[in-house]
Amino acid sequence: xxxxxxxxxxxxxxxxxxxxxxxxxxxxxxxxxxxxxxxxxxxxxxxxxxxxxxxxxxxxxxxxxxxxxxxxxxxxxxxxxxxxxxxxxxxxxxxxxxxxxxxxxxxxxxxxxxxxxxxxxxxxxxxxxxxxxxxxxxxxxxxxxxxxxxxxxxxxxxxxxxxxxxxxxxxxxxxxxxxxxxxxxxxxxxxxxxxxxxxxxxxxxxxxxxxxxxxxxxxxxxxxxxxxxxxxxxxxxxxxxxxxxxxxxxxxxxxxxxxxxxxxxxxxxxxxxxxxxxxxxxxxxxxxxxxxxxxxxxxxxxxxxxxxxxxxxxxxxxxxxxxxxxxxxxxxxxxxxxxxxxxxxxxxxxxxxxxxxxxxxxxxxxxxxxxxxxxxxxxxxxxxxxxxxxxxxxxxxxxxxxxxxxxxxxxxxxxxxxxxxxxxxxxxxxxxxxxxxxxxxxxxxxxxxxxxxxxxxxxxxxxxxxxxxxxxxxxxxxxxxxxxxxxxxxxxxxxxxxxxxxxxxxxxxxxxxxxxx
Amino acid sequence: xxxxxxxxxxxxxxxxxxxxxxxxxxxxxxxxxxxxxxxxxxxxxxxxxxxxxxxxxxxxxxxxxxxxxxxxxxxxxxxxxxxxxxxxxxxxxxxxxxxxxxxxxxxxxxxxxxxxxxxxxxxxxxxxxxxxxxxxxxxxxxxxxxxxxxxxxxxxxxxxxxxxxxxxxxxxxxxxxxxxxxxxxxxxxxxxxxxxxxxxxxxxxxxxxxxxxxxxxxxxxxxxxxxxxxxxxxxxxxxxxxxxxxxxxxxxxxxxxxxxxxxxxxxxxxxxxxxxxxxxxxxxxxxxxxxxxxxxxxxxxxxxxxxxxxxxxxxxxxxxxxxxxxxxxxxxxxxxxxxxxxxxxxxxxxxxxxxxxxxxxxxxxxxxxxxxxxxxxxxxxxxxxxxxxxxxxxxxxxxxxxxxxxxxxxxxxxxxxxxxxxxxxxxxxxxxxxxxxxxxxxxxxxxxxxxxxxxxxxxxxxxxxxxxxxxxxxxxxxxxxxxxxxxxxxxxxxxxxxxxxxxxxxxxxxxxxxxxx
Lengths: 517, 517
Hints:
Chain A is an alpha/beta fold. The first copy, chain A, contains 20 helices and 17 strands.
């Protein structure tokens, strides 16, 4: 058994049985070894950002990591943006980066690169395999490191000669560290605050955004009057009819400030203290209102769901969670606009869907439009590195083959990882991608105003516009083997969305929307 | 004047007047400032790898750097692969990475990232601006650092508040360090070797691959019988009818070994000692034959052209360079194959063209087919990070608006930076892209065999194939606004290539070629 075989055997034994891959020469023995471990399923991405984003989306839905196979430093670089997003999502991801053979590195061959420096920028776990006989143990350690609560990117650098060398030994799975319990006094202090009569905000994040955490949060809120908010960009938020609705903290600082205004206490439950996404001239970065005290119920990595449940049992023993009613918006009509497209999604979203949301500025009305739609999972752009939506959807679809996946995708962001569509076609995934095509970096037009950079001159305006030429997403999708249509009216979007959901396999709808700015 | 304005003013004064950009919020004041410096031309790329590859291609042809504007660590990550190639090409590139405002960093906002770690992996020059009043001086230092011989990637990290802050002061250009002279005794020693009667290889690289270096090399070779070779992947190689032809050292180690066999001395002139691209089980990495001694005439960063010319004057005073005759292959006919497509290029290549070559396995016969074509510049994949061909062509076209640019592009590699086509359309660049579409990672099929990984099983084979589904590059190009056609016969390729060269603006030809492996 060679090193690569021991690596893949170990991964599969640890429950990692999907490997998203964009391999190169130094990974050829790893690729060859895939056929020796029948449980392992390799999925090709045509660009590393597809691979890493899919691994992120997979783990968000499956609850266990996938592997991502990359080729030396440049491959890791191409995958870095979506690993950044995975890091912010606290998603467990096992990255295997193939490197030159140990004895080859001193020659500074063209692809020689500082893999550790790039991987280290993710503040996760990084190890370089040092002996073929240890590759299995390294792999087991990587899986555990990725899964140690709250989850992280674990990068294993695999030199080619350790991959092809004989003497590989599979290792048993290493149990990851579970979430650390929250001590009873911390729960009791939070209970005291909630009973104290002063206005409290409860800001939830991480696993608290799943059903059990939402139920506890809803009970607390209903019994005490505390305002419940979810972090702005949760990795996975469960929502829809029958689940308690928890409003998200707004992206825009003026709106977030309004949500938090007047509160004297902020209890953090799996979330970090709110700050603005970017700095703006003359505005504070810290969104916590003057005079509001911060209290931490559970940090990321602590058992926030247990803590919230215990807290609810203290302050809301007889209170039930408040489910959101089933309520869909009516199907809109007329030309497609910023204001009506989300209602189409809300009106037609199928049962048990997964939404990968990178609609950015176009999606401001989406939460309202889908709040009473059938229960669904929402995966958001956690780290702000655009180009995540379609890859995350791809991984989610592989993790949950029976569930419909809907990607709501801004046009500009779509183009960073557009080849994801090919992987969706190859794997015949039930993903419906709606591109919100306003032919602009609309968010940058907005931010241009917000940072006070006056109005754009002609050179600046050219850098904020995606036209001319217009990008034809129907052609792009068909080029990658995904059937596609264009919608310019709400009726067209509704008909095409319904048909895409009905027909198996991937589809794309180029939803052309006039820009607001 | 704010910091951004002082930065752009300084860049323009130092001769950096093109800025390839994929900006985000933290770069909005930089974008706004573009309109205050009329000499500066902003070019939007839809992905950072387009931006950095274009900056590389621009400088290879213009001989001076462009700026590349990127957005925090994830943006730099997306641009890293082509910066790696630029590093290997020793191309001067000025990278400006916008960062959060200085006071915002401590909040660990979602896009907070370790920019210096990623930039540092390039072994170039990295500086973080520390005061608005120094941004101009930092920019001048960055340009000089990029241009100091032999050239490198210089990364300037620009916090948003230093960009928008008032008090910017433009700085005068800083003279970059010219190539260091080669001392006369080193030239004399090389002359002694060449006159010594033992077989000598002269391996040239860097600026020696341009006309003056080639002429000197040819004189030396003609007068002494030394074998002249150029480095495997030159940043820019001038060739064609009327110029001396210098064969490149082969990528494949068996072929390179044959080229070098039997030589007792290897003189390095701007090149580094030859090593294999990857390690292969049981094969040496070092390509220098047993018993062959290495002598360095000029290291990268030394004035190799002057040294070669001085050497030629010593050993070949009365010898003229040997120009390659004008000689085109006949136009082939019949189905397009691995063996005939390059002859179409050789037969029809226009005068004064620039070829960006990322044809990889499909391009093995290209050097021979184009050796006697009209004089042209060849830009190669210097660092092995695929996805360079189309961006480099884009930058080259902006650097040389009057010259036809031809991209010869493997299908798999094309997909890393496919949105480059949109920038070509927007800027109406005279670039003709021929995609060599063999529906496979053919190089990986080859490498799979070479590393001795037996024959691929079904899982492995799926990771080496780009079909199904077939990728339709005509649709992809049209989606990005570039007119495109498909060729399956040599006659079709010839007709379409001639027409694409004749018509202004970008074109793409999807040249479907049966895979060899």
